[in-house]
Amino acid sequence: MVFSYNWLKDYVKNLPKPAKLAGLLNLYAFEVEEVKNPPAGGSKDWILDIDVLPNRAPDCFSHIGIAREIAAITGLTLQIPTAEIKENKDIKTKDFVSVEVKNKQACPRYTARVINNVKVGPSPKWLKDRLKVCGLRPINNVVDIANYVMLETGQPLHVFDGEKLEGKKIIVRFAQKNEKIVTLDEEKYDLDENILVIADAKRPIAIAGIKGGKLPEIDNKTKTIILESANFDSRIIRKGSQRLKLKTDASWRFEHGIDPNLTESAINRAAFLIQKLAKGKVAKGLVDVYPQKVLSRRIKLDLNYLERLLGTKIPAWRIKDILKRLGLKLKVSQSQSMTVEIPTFRLDLSIPEDLIEEIGRIAGLWKIKAVFPSVSLIPPKKNFNIFWEEVTRNILKGAGFTEVYNYSFINENDRRVFGGKELIEVENPLSVEQKYLRPSLIPNLLKNIQKNQRYFNDIKIFELGKIFRKLKKVEEKRELTGVIVGDEFYQLKGVVDLLLHGLGISDIYYDEYQATPEESKLAIWYPQKCAEIKVGQEEIGFLGEIAQKIIDGFKIEKKVVVFDIDFEKLQRLSSEETIYQPISRYPAAVRDLAVLVPLGTKVETVLNKIEAIGGKLIRDIDLFDIYEGEELPQGKKNLAFHIIYQAKDKTLSSREVDEMQKKIIKTLEKNPEWQVRK
Amino acid sequence: MVKINLKLLKKRAQKEIAQAGDLKLLNEVFKKYLGKKGELTFVLRSLEKLPKAKRKKVGQEANELKNYLKVQLDQKIVAIKERVKKETEEKEWIDITQPGKKPLVGHLHPLTQVRKKTEEIFQAMGFTVTEGPEVENEWYNFDALNIPKDHPARDLWDTFYLKGGLLLRTHTTPVDVRYMGKNNPPLRIITIGRCFRHEATDASHESNFYQMDGLMVGPDISVANFKATIQEFFQRFFGKPIEIRIRPSHFPFTEPSFEVDMTCSVCGGKGCSACQKTGWMEMMGAGMMHPNVFKNAGLNPKNWQGWAFGMGFDRLAMMKYKINDIRLFYSGDLRFLRQF
Which end of chain A is more exposed for a tag (fewer CB within 10 A), N or C? Predict the structure, then answer.
């Protein structure tokens, strides 16, 4: 909110220079965004743009409030203008208007005054200047004074033309369904039962606490005015303002809450100024509907607690001085406690901690010295989620993968491919790109490839992040997804093996991908180039090539292979334990074996056969070459293995090894389609 | 005759050893004199034909000569090997300016790296690293933090709502309440996690971002303790002396509340463009946990007090690496990511 420096100067003598003042406010009260001069042609003044903290809106959305703050910080004297109105005994307020408040909770207080014989006209220059500095447009003296008093005191005021009211009545009530109002700026609003209005005998004449209606507008012929200074419930004003999408200087103040005791001094101040500047006569009697007077609260402050919370000692005399400067009354003072009376304009002070903040703030939070806490030596708990995430990331980094962080959202197009009934929709998305929570990390990784393929040939990226699904309830879980560009299924399979071994998982195998009926419709995987990654009997994720249609849809030029692993499952299976396997003291013998098999034969089938025969005497079988080519018979491929023979308890003689090898060859050749090459 | 022969033989052998330029030639010399059919070997073998009186004398001389030649040959071998080594060393060289072959490794996201560093610093000060859900409910995100419904304070957090009533957490502070609900003080925790704000994106704002939250609760944890702890964190993080300044602020879940400034990491407090010539950089919001939050977490505020802070984590990484646009973190752009 913007404030006029000159205006503040009226209330605080010897006000520090603007830049210095801004510095003080920064350290002791509110951040000052900017100090600047009014635009050319304006008055000679400074505009202070102050970020009043939201809890201080009730007292500091006003020049008097800020002046009071400055006085408290600096110790300078505060001079608030007084309003001595002269009521005219011949005219009586009640002859012009009667006020009825239908809902006392919505409107805790309603004060009104009548001023007769006003001369509506332009405001004097000084008044216009001040409004302009504060960003308001001058209209006429009566309306300008109402606005001026709002900027001065924080109390929004409203003015009606008394002769335009039907039935000389003001009724504060909720609107009825289908009621309408045209506001001062000629906008039409449809009202409903949630919106509080000010009405005359017939119709709404203002949206309470938000904006005045066109009907009783002040014009040049206006003679009798009714001044309104009321207090409205902050929640009701906030709801109304949101419903009508209408924010005004008044609604903004009301929704932050205002002291009901402020209405009277504000209305008197306005009446005083109107009397002075628009020559009106103030009718006798203040209308004041105030059924439940708000009284000041008391807070008991424990001085030990103050010291313990701030971690610094503030002497009692200094505390008393600060309380006084802030306008807080010390009622009872004991050695260890003080009882303080809080004036009603400080809506923000209700618990001892609030008072401690005030004392710490004015004493200077920045002066508190840093002191390390003395606490018991309790070692931090190990966070296993973060530990395993880190191990995983480091393995993938070592395997040449770069980590990306993508948005947690996907768009409508992604939904068609990756969505399902479990998708979670954002109620208020920022854009169509962010309409749903991601159910998979794959779509955004594919977008990464699309964007990067212009610059890089080799793309290996992964993400470890949350995905979201709605099952019985919303479920979020960590997913680990890696992608590689190119026809690189086996390379990525090797990475998955490396990763799982690095996480201490051994019982890994790859199974045929079985699409559920629902999944088959989505078909993101290339048929027959996709596997389920299994550990024991549990499926933990998928490895495969992405279907061509999808790759085309994402405008990706090359093949893409992906692993997509449920990280929650992966972590559950991970283990830090590695058990040493004794190295055999007996020598190993290596024999090579090449076998010609049909193209459709799986390596695993051949391996299983060899292992079944070799049993414990085979330490390892290493597939070192797969060859398909013209020299080979049609429809065949050649698999070449190193078979490593080694026993744990003896040296194998070459005769034993050769016999074993012969036995293997014989068994393999039982299959008429297989041919061992000699 | 034999006597003369030995003297001559010695002279000839000496000369030939001296002249042999490499190991092959030297081997020839060895064979010629000391080999199976060597001249000296022949002399030694023919000793038995000599009369007894002479045999002893000649035998002694021939054996001495044999030992002498062996030593000479050995010395020469060492000398030649030395020379060859030296020559090779002079000839062979490596162009040390030719580029090395880098093993291909990947890159961890800068936020991952800064996160690790941050967690390590706090863990060293006894903080446990915690987490919480990204999809939250209104209670934990707002109500429990003393931000009532229909209160203008809620406007400070622009929120993404999900169909069905849940929301995306706007800060990591709900984790404080969740943790306190399950763990009794004294406690020290740090949370770094993804948060969401419904606001337009630009170079310094993102709808997806990371926040760091810290909480320390005990019987007498104070503002002064906060200052010391957070100053220590920043000093370790930036690796230089740093001052902390706190100023009044307001958050519904802390009382007192403050803004936390640190000496500008660029100019060290002298004033520069990075700190708008103030010498200070605004780093985080913090405060002493509000009694209502303790109550909402099931703790008795009469027994416990403590500080909490929350700060934009992306900004910390941006300061560390001098990154000027937060959107780069979420761009997946390998030209950016491969720099880390």
Answer: C
